[in-house]
């Protein structure tokens, strides 16, 4: 590659590192005079790279936002970070719903890498194993995600078109409090002015977002992630389960996370009779689930005393599990 072209690319890399670079600083880094730096800047402008000249005592050159992204200059570690980020994004659902966007971005990066670096990165990706299988993801359209994020940041109301899990469509006016990514899905939590309730809505079920005039003030001490998890745990399902478990909320959360159960420690008078006052506190656990068959094993894994308040059907399932465990423990005895 001729040295002038190499220096033009080096200039682009210096500008992409951020900030304003003086002409003298760039001249020193490129080992040329300031007149040549201005000539190289002209080359970048001819390539539609948005270089901006800053006048004044602390002036120089910097990149400004343009109508398209300029060519990126990535080092070895930067290229690896980008590719690993794309892989992780696909596995966790942290991508846009265009689906192929992550794959095409990775392909573009790999296509322009030097063969030495490409082979090394391929070796990393080919030898990389994950301890968990990729979960089912439902990623949002960028045309939904971007305006919602802007509305959250600027406290703007929005009008949305939403389809619920039963296929019913509706138009809603929403005060969006925050965006949350959880288990391969994106959610927005906020005040639904149409129903007068606070709601948690999936972004992949939103087909249109329109920002409305005005603004709103979100509640003080807002934690969107906590509200989404609580909303998921209290959503309507076939069975309503209430338990008392001797254990702290922190311990119970290890087996029944906030997206599954709502846990609240009980005051001493509400603990079962005969409980040791020096022992761990008791907590009330509330869940809404479609199936009960998985709960007995989870309750056993808590390794804590518990009392089933409802439903009675769960008592029978726990007893059946206990009988199976007792039978398995006695099997093979002489």
What is the helix content?
25-40%
Instruction: Give the low-confidence spans.
Output: none
Main sheet overview: 5 strands, antiparallel
Radius of gyration, in Å, reads 29 Å
Strand order of the largest sheet: 6-5-4-3-7
- Mean pLDDT across residues: 82
Query: Distance between termini?
Result: 83 Å
**Element-level helix/strand string:** HHHEEHHHHEEEEEHEHEEHEH
SS element count, helices: 11
Number of DSSP E strands: 11
User: Strand pairing plus helix content: what structural class?
Assistant: alpha+beta
The outline comes out as elongated
Strand content: 15-25%
What does this molecule look like?
The chain is an alpha+beta fold. 40% of the residues lie in helices and 22% in strands. The chain has 11 helices and 11 strands. It has helices at 3-16, 23-30, 34-46, 76-92, 101-112, 115-127, 142-154, 224-233, 249-253, 295-302, 312-330, and strands spanning 51-54, 60-63, 158-163, 169-182, 185-192, 197-202, 206-211, 239-246, 261-265, 282-289, 306-310. The strands form 3 sheets. It has a 5-stranded antiparallel β-sheet with strand order 6-5-4-3-7, with helices on both faces. α1 (3-16) crosses α3 and α4 runs antiparallel to α5. The model has no long low-confidence stretch (mean pLDDT 82).
């Amino acid at each position: 590659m001729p040295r002038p072209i190499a220096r033009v690319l080096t200039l682009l890399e210096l500008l992409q590192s951020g900030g304003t670079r003086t002409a003298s600083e760039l001249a020193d880094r490129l080992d040329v005079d300031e007149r040549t730096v201005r000539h190289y800047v002209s080359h970048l402008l001819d390539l539609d790279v948005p270089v901006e000249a800053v006048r004044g005592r602390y002036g120089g050159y910097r990149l400004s936002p343009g109508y398209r992204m300029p060519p990126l200059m990535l080092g070895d570690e930067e290229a690896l970070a980008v590719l690993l980020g794309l892989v992780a994004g696909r596995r966790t659902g942290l991508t846009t719903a265009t689906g192929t966007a992550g794959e095409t971005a990775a392909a573009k990066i790999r296509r322009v890498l030097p063969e030495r670096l490409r082979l090394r990165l391929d070796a990393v990706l080919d030898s990389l194993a994950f301890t968990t299988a990729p979960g089912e993801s439902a990623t949002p359209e960028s045309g939904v995600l971007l305006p919602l994020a802007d509305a959250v940041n600027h406290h703007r109301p929005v009008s949305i078109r939403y389809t619920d899990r039963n296929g019913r469509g509706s138009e809603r006016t929403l005060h969006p409090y925050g965006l949350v990514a959880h288990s391969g899905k994106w959610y927005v939590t906020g005040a639904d002015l149409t129903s007068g309730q606070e709601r948690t809505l999936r972004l992949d079920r939103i087909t249109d977002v329109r920002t409305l005039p005005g603004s709103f003030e979100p509640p003080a001490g807002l934690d969107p992630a906590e509200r989404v998890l609580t909303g998921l745990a209290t959503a309507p399902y076939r069975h309503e389960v209430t338990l008392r478990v001797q254990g702290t909320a922190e311990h119970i959360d290890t087996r029944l996370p906030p997206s599954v159960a709502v846990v609240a420690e009980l005051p001493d008078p509400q603990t079962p009779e005969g409980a040791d006052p020096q022992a761990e506190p008791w907590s009330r656990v509330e869940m809404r689930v479609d199936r009960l068959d998985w709960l007995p094993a989870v309750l056993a894994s808590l390794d804590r005393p518990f009392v089933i308040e409802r439903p009675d059907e769960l008592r029978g399932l726990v007893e059946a599990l206990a009988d199976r465990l007792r039978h398995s423990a006695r099997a093979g005895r002489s």
